[in-house]
Amino acid sequence: MALIEIQLSKSLARALRLPRKSPQRQQLKVLRKLLKKARFTEFGQEYRFDEILLSRHPGKKFQEMVPTFDYNKIHAAWWNKTLEGKADVCWPGKIKYYALSSGTSEAGSKFIPITNDLLRGNRIVMIKQLLTLRTYRDIPVKSLGKGWLMIGGSTSLQKGAGYYSGDLSGITARKVPFWFQPFYKPGKKIARTKDWTKKLEEVVRLAPQWDIGFLVGVPGWIQLCMEKIVERYNLNNIHEIWPNVGFFVHGGVSFEPYRKGFEKLLGKPVTYIETYLASEGFIAYQDVQNSRGMRLVTNQHIFLEFVPFDNRNFDADGNLVENPEVYMIHEVEEGRDYALLLSTSAGAWRYLIGDTVRFVDKERCEIIITGRTKHFLSLVGEHLSVDNMNKAVQLVTEELNLSITEFTVAGIPHGLFFAHQWWLGCSDQADEALLRQKIDDKLKELNDDYAVERDSALKDIYVKVLPEEKFMEFMRLKGKIGGQHKFPRVLKGKMLLDWQKYLETGSI
């Protein structure tokens, strides 16, 4: 062990000569820490982690020796053994917790390993994020010591053969530190409730008893909770019952489509804080007030790699090709979309998480989430991303003074060609023909490929306005109701068939 450390320190000092706090240096330090911890596991022995650690360029050697994985590939080869109770497979020890994650398109649940090392890293990142609040201007100081309403999954986990599984938010809430418990709402008893409707009813019932300063959760579900409280107590806005609400910590989806409807429920401005906390780990967070994006966590518990999201590296269905082009953090470019590969302190190795990001400030490692590798529309080369869709909806809602709380899009046949079908969740009076025109126009401005194809093989777009409750009810029927579940922005395959059946019959 000492020999390895001496060799690493000398070789890195000579070969790299990096500034102490450079993201590249931080990431290589994280990689070495992960490799050293896991080198005696089955995975570490298979891919010769000791040899990688002794290399003069461990990052490049790691990429040469360890293949990339998606969920199906790593589960079939490695993670399935941990579900059978085997220890020291991809990470030292037995895996006692799994986050159930189906994303927004997959049919079956994914079992993502969760370890104490990962949860510890997540907590450290959360504390670091809280410390950045001191740099914010005019923050509501009174809110800092008030309650945190965290709307997430049930802490009552499913018991398997030697392990527990459930939402990451449920696992995290179950392990809330003792010092945080007085601030944590709705409290452990309600947090254990599996029935989302009953949980929401309890939150609404107890709302007058709490003094909330922070709201934490996916925008759609937090908005629904506030709407129910405002309706139940005949309020004008949420600040009439919780005057100290000063922060909304959100993540998972773009907030912009929700902003207008969300702010209608407020009596005064709040500070928005965006986070990127996935089942696989805490990846990024907003550390500067009103910043364009979130800063990647480069010095804690996740080693990041970036695959250009293009036709060379992904097939038409969004699957990663063999031997893709992969970059480390110092090799990326601003303004280009990348799919993320993660190596984590829970035994994920070069793992395709399924999200795509774009660097908006490379020097600060600041990114925005642009979509999912399988959530895009390119029937005829229009290359329409979720980021394009979010931006178009945001611009249209601002222009028409509407609140569109949810939306989804699908590609459909149009004679010998194709069209896009949009479904918009809106409780305001809305003109479908005007929305169709406006969304189409905005997308043409945002995306040159889309504009070209609208004059060619993409013959039309259709817009259908639905009550926002339709989207929530569909998620309930799919068993995806709750704090961590998001409605997919692009529908394909079975999810599209189920959605079309639901709209026709009310069932799936």
TrEMBL record:
<feature type="domain" description="GH3 C-terminal">
    <location>
        <begin position="388"/>
        <end position="492"/>
    </location>
</feature>
<dbReference type="InterPro" id="IPR004993">
    <property type="entry name" value="GH3"/>
</dbReference>
<dbReference type="Pfam" id="PF23572">
    <property type="entry name" value="GH3_C"/>
</dbReference>
<dbReference type="Pfam" id="PF23571">
    <property type="entry name" value="GH3_M"/>
</dbReference>
<dbReference type="GO" id="GO:0016881">
    <property type="term" value="F:acid-amino acid ligase activity"/>
</dbReference>
<dbReference type="InterPro" id="IPR055378">
    <property type="entry name" value="GH3_C"/>
</dbReference>
<dbReference type="GO" id="GO:0005737">
    <property type="term" value="C:cytoplasm"/>
</dbReference>
<feature type="domain" description="GH3 middle">
    <location>
        <begin position="297"/>
        <end position="361"/>
    </location>
</feature>
<protein>
    <recommendedName>
        <fullName>GH3 auxin-responsive promoter</fullName>
    </recommendedName>
</protein>
<dbReference type="InterPro" id="IPR055377">
    <property type="entry name" value="GH3_M"/>
</dbReference>
<dbReference type="Pfam" id="PF03321">
    <property type="entry name" value="GH3"/>
</dbReference>
